[in-house]
């Protein structure tokens, strides 16, 4: 998606070979116009599937997920990272390990928001090792619903997440695919630079 690539070039900051900071438009400040285009791009690709719901993980997945939900006309559920006082019964939960943060955390979704046989599109801001997307997939499947695709805003293609998801038979669609962050430079897949 060319507007996203341009934004990453202009405002992304390479922290090291593994981490790209995008707090100017995605992880802290949010660019609503770009986010709407992101939602529409996901909708164009996943329109062929009969998506009934979008599932994401708080907090940075919410903005692109809501825009995709708006474009597809379906509700959006975000898995929570802290079990709220009002979310004690009838929850689905799983443990996700974050390599970036070097810690395990539990994520929660209320059963009442994912029904058996639903066709769920999972959206997230980053794909690194795939832990979050695989954790969300486990929750959806535990609800006896089906994951029809994974939509990612920024994929770090030099990490193994994409391959792990494909090995699970999932349809992965990433709007920006980063081949390398070496030498303080963002290199996209060549097909995307065109
Ligand atoms: P994984 O799910 O693909 O295995 O990734 P990982 O555990 O490494 O990700 C942990 C957190 O770090 C996630 O945010 C993820 O979005 C973020 N992250 C991973 N790689 C990058 C990167 O290169 N740049 C930035 N900016 N973030 C990255 P989170 O903890 O869920 O936080 P939130 O922002 O959603 O609140
Ligand atoms: Na994040
Ligand atoms: Na995230």
From TrEMBL:
Domain of life of the native organism = Bacteria
The processes (GO biological process) annotated in the record are: purine ribonucleoside salvage; xanthine metabolic process; XMP salvage
Q: Which Pfam families match?
A: Pribosyltran
Associated pathway: Purine metabolism; XMP biosynthesis via salvage pathway; XMP from xanthine: step 1/1
Q: Which residues form a coiled coil?
A: none
Q: Where in the cell is it found?
A: Cytoplasm
Q: Which reaction does it catalyse?
A: XMP + diphosphate = xanthine + 5-phospho-alpha-D-ribose 1-diphosphate
**Annotated residues for binding of xanthine:** 20, 27, 156
Q: Name one GO cellular component term.
A: cytoplasm
One term of GO molecular function = xanthine phosphoribosyltransferase activity
- Identify the EC number(s): 2.4.2.22
| Keywords, in A-Z order | Cytoplasm, Glycosyltransferase, Membrane, Purine salvage, Transferase, Transmembrane, Transmembrane helix
InterPro entries named among the record's database cross-references: PRTase-like, PRTase_dom, Pur/Pyrimidine_PRTase, Xanthine_PRibTrfase
Q: Which residues form the Phosphoribosyltransferase domain?
A: 34-161
Show the stretches that span the lipid bilayer: 61-79
Q: Which residues bind 5-phospho-alpha-D-ribose 1-diphosphate?
A: 128-132
What the entry lists under HAMAP family is as follows: XPRTase (MF_01184)
The function of this protein is:
Converts the preformed base xanthine, a product of nucleic acid breakdown, to xanthosine 5'-monophosphate (XMP), so it can be reused for RNA or DNA synthesis.
Record's NCBIfam families? PRK09219.1, XPRTase
Per its UniProt record, what PANTHER family does this chain match? Answer: HYPOXANTHINE/GUANINE PHOSPHORIBOSYLTRANSFERASE, XANTHINE PHOSPHORIBOSYLTRANSFERASE
The record's family statement is: Belongs to the purine/pyrimidine phosphoribosyltransferase family. Xpt subfamily.
Q: How does it assemble?
A: Homodimer.
Q: What is this protein called?
A: Xanthine phosphoribosyltransferase
Q: What species is given as this protein's source?
A: Pullulanibacillus camelliae
UniProt gene name? xpt
């Amino acid at each position: 998606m060319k507007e996203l690539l341009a934004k990453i070039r202009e405002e992304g900051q390479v922290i090291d070979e593994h981490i790209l900071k995008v707090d100017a438009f995605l992880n802290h400040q949010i660019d609503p116009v770009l986010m709407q285009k992101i939602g529409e791009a996901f909708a164009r690709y996943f329109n062929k599937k009969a998506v009934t719901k979008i599932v994401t993980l708080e907090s940075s997945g919410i903005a692109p997920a809501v825009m995709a939900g708006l474009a597809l006309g379906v509700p959006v559920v975000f898995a929570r990272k802290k079990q709220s006082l009002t979310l004690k019964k009838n929850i689905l939960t799983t443990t996700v390990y974050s390599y970036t943060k070097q810690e395990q955390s539990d994520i929660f979704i209320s059963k009442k928001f994912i029904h058996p046989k639903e066709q769920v599109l999972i959206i997230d801001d980053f794909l690194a090792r795939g832990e979050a997307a695989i954790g969300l997939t486990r929750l959806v499947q535990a609800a006896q619903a089906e994951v029809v695709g994974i939509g990612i805003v920024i994929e770090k293609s030099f990490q193994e997440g994409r391959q792990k998801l494909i090995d699970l038979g999932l349809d992965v669609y990433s709007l920006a695919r980063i081949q390398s962050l070496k030498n303080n430079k963002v290199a996209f897949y060549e097909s995307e630079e065109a």
